[in-house]
């Protein structure tokens, strides 16, 4: 008797890749079926749909796993819908940076992840909360947030990470590097860049918070206190080389809760998307519940 397939859903954007999203999702669904899953295709039609669809699947009890094909923003949306349930999130990388997939040790090829899905295991993943909004990777405040605020979506779609890099150079030149005031576990601190991290990686393959672990029940706070173009350029080069922790203007600490008290004109981003906040303050902590996510076993 053939072994029963595991019930699953695949959330995807049919307009991705120049309207090739449906064909890609259908092909990946076939690979998932070869890996032992029975897959229902669920197409999004706009922002927030991945959350709604994931929540509906979790409430129905008809699937053990929800696969999400897309970038880090799509994964965050799907995770928001699954938080509090026992349904497992299956990342299928299809975005620009795919930072979470990198951090979990997944291939950046969605077909390869689908082919290996039967051998992956559900892992516990901490979920952050920026006010009430869930995030998986990080919230950061500073130049990177400004870059994302000014990013042209059409150029990003056409050029991918190159568009972000070009925008970064422009903003690096004209940004005014305002001071950001924060409260970390009750202690007031300040910086010109602050990242509250659930995973080590930032912007792709760069290791910003080396000790961050996505299942340890804590967040890691990275503070850069340099101001101006040259110190910021030096900080970026140090991050790329894994040496930023040695700088005197950098502090990295493990925290439970961070409050952004005043960010002036500094940009704000969450999991690679602009975080819209009309309040000068923002509280960031971990949710009381973890998410289950399909990934290779964690290192010993």
Description:
By secondary structure, the chain is of the alpha+beta class. It is 32% helix and 32% strand. Helix 7 crosses helix 9 and helix 8 (153-159) packs across helix 9. It has helices at 16-19, 21-34, 49-60, 72-82, 99-104, 110-116, 143-150, 153-159, 161-174, 229-241, and strands at residues 6-12, 37-43, 65-70, 88-93, 121-125, 128-130, 133-135, 138-142, 180-184, 187-191, 193-197, 201-202, 206-207, 219-224, 250-255, 257-262, 267-270, 273-274, 282-286, 291-295. It contains ten helices and 20 strands.
Can you lay out the helices and strands and say which pair or pack?
Layout: E1 6-12, H1 16-19, H2 21-34, E2 37-43, H3 49-60, E3 65-70, H4 72-82, E4 88-93, H5 99-104, H6 110-116, E5 121-125, E6 128-130, E7 133-135, E8 138-142, H7 143-150, H8 153-159, H9 161-174, E9 180-184, E10 187-191, E11 193-197, E12 201-202, E13 206-207, E14 219-224, H10 229-241, E15 250-255, E16 257-262, E17 267-270, E18 273-274, E19 282-286, E20 291-295
Parallel strand pairs: 1-2, 1-3, 3-4
Antiparallel strand pairs: 5-20, 6-7, 6-19, 8-11, 8-17, 9-10, 9-16, 11-14, 12-13, 14-15, 16-19, 17-18
Helix pairs in contact: 2-6, 3-4, 7-9, 8-9
């Amino acid at each position: 008797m053939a072994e029963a397939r595991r019930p699953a859903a695949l959330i995807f954007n049919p307009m991705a890749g120049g309207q090739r999203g449906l064909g890609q999702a259908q092909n990946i669904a076939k690979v998932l079926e070869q890996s032992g899953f029975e897959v229902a295709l669920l197409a999004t039609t706009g922002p927030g749909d991945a959350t709604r669809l994931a929540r509906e699947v979790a409430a129905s009890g008809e699937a053990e796993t929800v696969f999400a094909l897309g970038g880090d923003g799509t994964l965050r949306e799907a995770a928001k819908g699954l938080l509090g349930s026992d349904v497992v999130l299956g990342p299928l990388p299809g975005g620009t940076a795919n930072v979470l997939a990198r951090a979990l040790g997944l291939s950046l090829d969605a077909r390869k992840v689908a082919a290996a899905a039967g051998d992956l295991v559900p892992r516990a993943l901490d979920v952050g909360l920026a006010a009430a909004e869930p995030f998986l990777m990080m919230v950061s405040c500073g130049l990177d947030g400004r870059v994302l605020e000014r990013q042209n979506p059409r150029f990003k779609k056409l050029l991918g990470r190159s568009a972000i890099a070009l925008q970064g150079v422009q903003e690096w030149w004209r940004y005014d590097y305002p001071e950001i005031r924060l409260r970390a576990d009750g202690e007031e601190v300040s910086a010109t860049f602050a990242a509250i991290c659930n995973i080590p990686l930032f912007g792709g393959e760069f290791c910003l918070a080396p000790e961050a672990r996505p299942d340890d029940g804590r967040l890691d706070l990275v503070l850069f206190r340099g101001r101006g173009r040259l110190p910021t350029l030096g900080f970026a080069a140090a991050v790329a080389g894994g040496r930023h922790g040695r700088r005197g203007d950098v502090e990295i600490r493990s925290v439970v809760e961070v409050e952004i008290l005043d960010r002036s004109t500094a940009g704000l981003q969450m999991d690679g998307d602009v975080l819209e906040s009309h309040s000068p303050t923002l509280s960031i902590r971990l949710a009381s519940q973890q998410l289950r996510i399909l990934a290779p076993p964690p290192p010993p």
